[in-house]
Structures are given as C-alpha cells and as structure tokens.
Amino acid sequence: MREFKRLTPYREALRLLLDDLSEIPEVVEVPLDEALGRVLAGDVVSPIDSPPFDRSAVDGYALRAEDTFQAREYSPVELKVIDEIVAGEESGARVEPGTAVKLMTGSKMPEGANAVLMQEMAEREGEVIRVLRPVAPGQNVAFAGEDVKKGEVILRKGQVLRPQDLALLKSVGFKTVKVKRKPRVGIVVTGDELIEDFDEEALKAGKILESNSVMLKGLVRQYFGEPVFYGVVPDDEEAIREVIERAKKENDLVLVTGGSAFGDKDFAHRFVKLLFHGTTIKPGRPIGYGERVFIMSGYPVAVFAQFHLYVKHALAKLVGAKNYEVRVRATLTERVPSQLGRHEFVKVWYEDGKARPIKKKGSGIISSLVESNGYIEIPEDSEGYLEGDVVIVVLY
Amino acid sequence: MREFKRLTPYREALRLLLDDLSEIPEVVEVPLDEALGRVLAGDVVSPIDSPPFDRSAVDGYALRAEDTFQAREYSPVELKVIDEIVAGEESGARVEPGTAVKLMTGSKMPEGANAVLMQEMAEREGEVIRVLRPVAPGQNVAFAGEDVKKGEVILRKGQVLRPQDLALLKSVGFKTVKVKRKPRVGIVVTGDELIEDFDEEALKAGKILESNSVMLKGLVRQYFGEPVFYGVVPDDEEAIREVIERAKKENDLVLVTGGSAFGDKDFAHRFVKLLFHGTTIKPGRPIGYGERVFIMSGYPVAVFAQFHLYVKHALAKLVGAKNYEVRVRATLTERVPSQLGRHEFVKVWYEDGKARPIKKKGSGIISSLVESNGYIEIPEDSEGYLEGDVVIVVLY
C-alpha cells in the first residue's frame, strides 16, 4: 500500500512554494492602450502637479465670491465682464471688485478671482452679467495639485492596471507604462485515456475528452501569465521525462496534470525534485511542487482547486501582483461540514451577501465549477461552518 | 440662463436607452481557446452523457462493496484479481463475489462491480488483494451522466465565459463556441483645451492632457466591446458634426466626450436626436443619448460614472450579457450624505465586508477613481446613508 507518508499542511506547502520562487526581473514598457490588466513593475511618481495651476472646472465667469454674497433672485448683483478667453488661452486681466472674466473649462484662473460662476447660471446683457445667487469661494475651481502633486506616488508597484489607472497615468503625461513581463507557463497534460477530439466510439471504449488544457490556459491568462501548451502526452516514462525537461527550460512555471498520485503510470512526479508532494488540500491532495514545476491531478475540479490554492499565488509572486483576489464577506445559507486535518476548497454561489455551497461532489464534476462563482476555504483545524456563519468568499 | 429644462430621473433615462437598443444579431464561432470573457450567443445543450458510462474515478480495483463490509485491519478480506485493464480499455470480465478487476482512472466499470478500491489502499500479493477497510457502494465511481446529461442545457445564453465554462464545453466534445460579435464602440473626444502629448509650455498656458480616451477604451474592452478611437476633435461645429456622422455609420455605439452642457462651444449634442439630455445622476448630469450616441461629459470622473451607470448596461444589452456586474453587500464605515433629487454615484473602497467612501470630490480628480474599487448608488429619494448602513457595492 503506497500512500503519502505525510500530507504537508496547506499553509506550510504554500510557504515552501512561495519561498522557492522569486519575482521575475524583466520589465517591459508598453503603450497605455496595451496595459489593461498588466501588473505595474514599480511605483509611479507624478512628474507634474495636476492640475498644473488653479483652473476653472466649468465654462463660465471667474469672479470674486465675496462680490456675490448679497446676490438674490429679486436683487441680482451685476458684474462687468472685462475679458473673454477661449480654451487654452490665458487672461492678462486682474479681477477687481465688481468685475468678472469669461473663461472656459480648464482655463487658468485670472488673478484676483477665487470662484467661477457656471455660464448657464449667469444672465448676460452686453458687457454685464447678472448673478442671481451667491457663489462660494473656490466653487468650480480645480486647485493646482488637487488631483496629484508633483513627486507624489500615484500608483504603487504590483497594481493590476484598470481603466482609471491608465487615465491617471495619461493625465500626468505618460504614454507608456512599465509592467512586468508575462510569466510563460508551460502546460503538459498526461494520460493515455485522454482524447482531444470528439469520437463516440473512443468515448464508449473508455476514453475521456481532455478539458484541463483549455481551463488552465484560461486561468493562466486570468492571472497574468502566458500559457504555452505542450499537448497531451501519453503515459510513457521517456516521453513525459522529455517534455517536462523541455517545458522547464522554456517557461517560468510548468503545470503538469496527471501523474501526481502513485499509480503504476504516474510518472510525472518522478522527474522533479519535489519540495512537497501530497498536501492537506481537498480536493487536490496529490499535488507536488519543485523546481518551478507543479505536478497536478488529472481531474478538472481538483486541478481547478490546486490552481486557486497554489498556482494563482505563485503567478502573483512572479509578477509581484497585489490585490489580485476579490474577497468578499458572506453569510452561509447552510452548514458545510469539513474533515479535520484537511484544508477544504468549497465551491459556492455568492449573491447579495449570501454564499450557497455547491453540493455536487466528485472531482470529475466540471458542472459544479460552472454553477459556482467563488470558493471558501476551511482550514485543517475546523470541522466546518454552520448555517448563518460569516465566511470569506474568494470570487472567480 | 440656459439649463436643462428637466433632469430625467436615472431609471427613466436608463429604460429609454435600453428600450432604444436591441441585441446585435451577429454570432461568431470561435475556438474555445479564444472564448475567454466572450458572451455566449445561445443556450448550449450537451450532446452526450458525461461521463458516458459508469467509470472509475481512480486507479484501483473494481469490486462488489458488499464483499468488503467485514474487512478490518486485523482481519483483511481477500479478493482474487480476475482481469487487469489499462486506460481506455474495457474489461470483458464479470465481477463475481470474491473477485476484483484492476482498472485505471476513467475505465468503464466492469459488470457486477459497484465500487472501486484505490490502488494505494490495496495490499497486493500475486493474484490476490487484501482489503483492510470496508468500501462503500458507489465509492470512487463516476456514474453515467453524473456531470451532465445528454440534452441538458449546460450553459445559458448571456454567460460571460470563464475557464471552467470552457472546460465543460470541451469535456462534452465542443472545440468551438458561438459567441456574440463584439460591439464596435466609436470614441470621439472633443475639446480645444486637450493635448495628447506632454508639453510643459502648453500645460502652463492652460492646456489639459487628454485622458478620457484611454480610460474609455479600457472600459469598453472590460465590457465586451471593441473600441475605435476617432482622435481628439477641436471645438469646431463642422468637424464635430462630420466625425459623429462617420462614427455612427461605422459603429454599434458612439461615445462622445465633451460638449454635453450648454457652453458656446458645446456642439456635440446638437447633432443627435436625443431621447434624453440631462439626467439626475451626480456626477455626470449633462449626459445625452439618442441614435446610439452618448454625449458625455468632458471630466474623467463624470465620464467614468456615466459609463458605469449607463454605457455599461447598454453594452450588456447589445450582447445579451448576464451577470456582468460583481455586486457585494457591505457595511458603510461612515455616513454618506446625498442630495435629494440626485442619483448619486459614490466611489468606495471595499474590503472585508466594509465600504469606505472616497471623500475626494471634483469631477477632474482621477486619483479618486484610482483609490476606489467600487461604487454605491444613492437614488433620488434618499438623503444618503448612515455609518453602519448595509449597502450594495458594485466592484470595478
């Protein structure tokens, strides 16, 4: 009877793995347009104040707020318009008591003025505007450095870039951004029973349609990597040894599915010096890792759990990504028992503050993944959660 | 004084807009590998039972569970191995009382057997295995149709495809999937004050670095679309008319930033027959929509809010996407006052069940978007929320 001598506790295995990997040093500079979802390689400092000076936030009239404090609809205040400028121009005039300067959105505030009346709110007659209501000091003015200050860190290393992050970079003058090179992730799928194309006869005879590769490619893409698929390799010791060697050379990380247990044909784990083999996670216990290679299960659900519990964190470490998970609080709609000594990965459907555990079991049951949108983790020392317990759901 | 005669309530404007748009009919068939994040064009029905027959979920020995009920470590049950098959083969043998068949993961269950003993749990000696513990009926067996049944809808129209969805499609024999064509979204940015390249002199003179285009391109990509950028157009009536006409012809949707208010140079809204112009949202009130064209603000924060409150839902309608938002429940860390009559878009930082409102105001303040990871909405009839109130956060 061959089994794992010892199951490495989940957290211990994760630490071994993360300690073994280091952030990839390569940085690539990409146009902002191609940077969505990429991971920022270093802190970004603003080269300018933004806005670079006090400016109007609207089209309207720059004025002295104090001139308008007595303005009422039945007794408007009249101001003389002493200058009119268009967008991108600057007024040389100084706003003295009783005067105003017409300007556009983004125009530099003229000297003397401390507020802007929106154009739509002014009644204009020749050189005069009538103000019907008081304007507060600072109203409709965007102050210099109000958005970001020169020298300020505006984005931090590890940020996964979103549309608004790109806008901020652009607004202070950047057209490119330095991001981490995408880690190359070799994917090797092993198993004599696997076929790639639909074949009713073969399925009847016991073959299985291989689905791990398309899933892993998608997961690798979601978590910053570039997948490289090495195809389905038969359960042949030499073939597996050869492809693992090659994939190791050509990639930052290698994922091998199948061959992680101790069947007669489980070869993959023999060709890697493993830091751990067999951990307390459920499903997915027979996972091994060493030399940047993961030896994973053959079952899609186990592979999915192994990816989220281990591989995802490895990829985040390689690129230095922060905040790469969406973790939300939820109330369980029913109890979830868990085996002591196992770190359980429980699929749930999260909606409106509630997490409903997906009951379908079995590591071949891909539909259970499809019916879920997140997972909870139940550590080794817990027998599970009760209905109504508040848990953390990681969304996917 | 020119202003909006009436602000259309948020929900009314949204309904007008969604009623005006219809789902785009075109469907494209893409390889599974290219389908991540695409929107499923129709329900998908499984052409097969999966698994196609009862099969073993592990490498091991198929047996009759009842033969093992008396098995104890100190008094093992012995079974005779009458056949051995490898992956993808089928046994012709029938498992009679006292016998077992050695098989592999995925092997068809031989007649007579109703459970599988994992190989690692069996002590083998020649033709005999010793079973040390009882095996439950059904243990380690994946039953026919257990994952999905032939004819069953396995994925629904509108699903945004995830890695596990692709795996399910592959596991029942698909290599391609029909998804909606990506809507083409024309982006037109207007404003004399805008520059595309960093230029210190120009900035000092009142110019502004344009940042809406890169943000909108990113947002459009996040929500199923393909952005087409028409560049920065000066505040010239003819130029704006021409580019809007062209963009309308070439796209499913057009986003115009700038020119939505009533300044002298706000031309854009004059060239579109608007269904509404001016709504109760804050920020972003001066938004107009008609003829598949959005006339949006010039300010990045207002544009961002307008996108999430209106454009995102329009794009989802065009492709028929479901579940395109991550909505989570959260407790507010402090009170958020809101103006009656306005539908407020409040940026928050969501973490661990709590939502912290981002105080920075001003529609030019892009850093306020960067510091947030979601928003809450406060409808017109509410004066806001108190500290401790439970709200729904839409994550971004």
Cα gyration radius of chain A (Å): 31 Å
CATH class of the largest domain in chain A: Alpha Beta
Lateral arrangement of strands in the main beta sheet of chain A: 7-4-6-5-9-8
Largest interface, C-beta closer than 8 angstroms, per-chain residues: A-B, 109 and 109 residues
CATH superfamily of the largest domain in chain A: MoaB/Mog-like domain
Your description of this structure?
The structure is a homodimer of 396-residue chains. Chain A is of the alpha/beta class and 396 residues long. Chain A has four domains: 10-25 and 182-319, Molybdenum Cofactor Biosythetic Enzyme, Chain A (3-Layer(aba) Sandwich), CATH 3.40.980.10; 27-49 and 159-180, Molybdopterin biosynthesis moea protein, domain 2; 55-142, Molybdopterin biosynthesis moea protein, domain 3 (Molybdopterin biosynthesis moeA protein, domain 3), CATH 2.170.190; 326-395, Beta-clip. Chain A is 19% helix and 30% strand. Chain A has helices at residues 10-20, 163-171, 200-204, 212-222, 237-250, 300-319, 366-370; strands at residues 27-31, 44-45, 55-56, 60-63, 77-84, 99-103, 115-118, 122-125, 128-131, 141-142, 153-155, 176-180, 184-190, 194-195, 208-209, 226-233, 253-257, 276-277, 281-282, 288-290, 293-296, 326-332, 336-337, 343-351, 354-357, 374-378, 384-385, 390-395. In chain A, strands 7-4-6-5-9-8 form a six-stranded mixed sheet, with no helix packed on it. A six-stranded mixed sheet of chain A has the order 16-13-17-21-20-18, with helices on both faces. A five-stranded mixed beta barrel of chain A has the order 22-25-24-26-28. In chain A, strand 24 and strand 25 form a beta hairpin. In chain A, helix 4 packs parallel to helix 6. The radius of gyration of chain A is 31 Å and the shape is elongated. At the A-B interface, helix 2, helix 3, strand 15, helix 4 and strand 22 of A face helix 2, helix 3, strand 15, helix 4 and strand 22 of B.
